[in-house]
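Dear Dr. H.,

I hope your travels went smoothly. While you were away I took the liberty of generating a structure for the chain from your last submission, since the lab meeting agenda had it listed for discussion. I wanted you to have the full record in hand beforehand rather than looking at slides cold. The sequence, exactly as received, is reproduced here:
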Amino acid sequence: MNVIVIVTDSLRADHVGCYGSTVKTPNIDKLASESAVFDNAYSENLPTLPCRTAWWTGKYLFTRRGWQHFEPTDYLLAEVLWDKGVTSALVTDVYHMHKPVYNCGRGYDSVFFIRGQEYDPWILDPKITVDLDRRHRLRGDDSDQLWKPRFEQYLRNVSGFKSEEDYFVAQVVKSAIRWLDYITRKAKDDLFLWVDCFDPHEPWDPPSPYREMYDPDYSGPDLIDPVPGPVAGYMTDRELRHTKALYAGEVTFVDKWVGVLLDRIRELGLFENTMIVFTSDHGEPFGEHGIIRKARPWGYEELAHVPLIIHHPAGEGAGRRFPGFVQPPDLMPTILDAMGIKSELVLSYTAPVKHAFPQDIVIDSKGVTPDGLSLIPMLRGDVSSIRDYAITAHCNAQWALRTADWTYLHEVRGDRPCELYDRRTDRAEQTNLIGGNTDVADALELKLRRLAGAMQ
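The corresponding predicted structure, in token form, is as follows:
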């Protein structure tokens, strides 16, 4: 058994075709048609690095760990696989993961970093001049001192691009394919590949024809990387719609290259013995709650709801949709379970589990206690769900609890009031009902605090 994980950063579930979107994602949709599709996958601890910590440790950490390095005591997914003799590689253009302090290469046999994404200090030649006027807009306040050099850095990084294949997602996919081509000459089993694409994260700067695909008649500025913050007074409604269209074009562009990778996996004969996981770390706000980008620690639907698609080579779960809540800490035990690594790291069960935080399991001398649960029993049809809620949080800023019926947003710091939304009639979370449903809010707050307390 092999496992290949494909991450596309900042991908909203509602911008993927198989989740009901009109955005064109034919390659992801094809994979979904042969796989298990999870309709209620929600991010846990946000943003980028906290989510990857959840993926690689199997733990809920929103109560005690924000954006930081891996701890020396963390027992990471790749380290577990390395200890079991699995050959592994990490390929990514997430420039935060390249920073040595975060130790993101731990456990991998091979690590390939694609440089230059977003504000990575990659091309530093001062003779390369850039023009912000057409593609960026500052806010005219103190934040300009931070954002102006960042925007200039990105434009320098892409100043030499001549064709679609120069773009970062293409470079990541080609690097992943090179590793697969090389390693499969030696072995086609016990392989683990993590492909971590930063796109469709901003800047939303796809090449043609993707740039014009969803707003061909627009003639204003391409605001590819808005300064995070309120939309009002910064962007017009028309500019906001166009920036969202650029994001949609970026999604379709990413889908094209995900398809290139999936095609090569098939050509190499790996599809028949490889579990393929496709997912994202979080979504992206486009004014639904008055902000552009991740300007506030608000875990609304547009940020929290992500795609999760799992192709199992034995066909388990194929062609089925699963409505139960699943979260990033479930990925590590799922992969270990699929690869037949039978240890206390994999929680097994034969009946629906309502609470996923057993406190009496200690794994080897490291004292690792997994919080996530394997999804393999769901794929097999042994259970219909593994929990009746999802937690989305920014560490000790805002916590959100979702159940089948409700979304409750709880302010941990600051003076914003808590919020309550009816998921049955208001999935976009636009009408706050907390005033008339304080009993519901109180019950959800109690449940959330009990869960948080169990994770301390």
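Two observations you may find useful: Confidence is low (pLDDT under 50) at residues 343-367. Residues 237-267 form the longest helix (31 residues).

With kind regards,
E. W.
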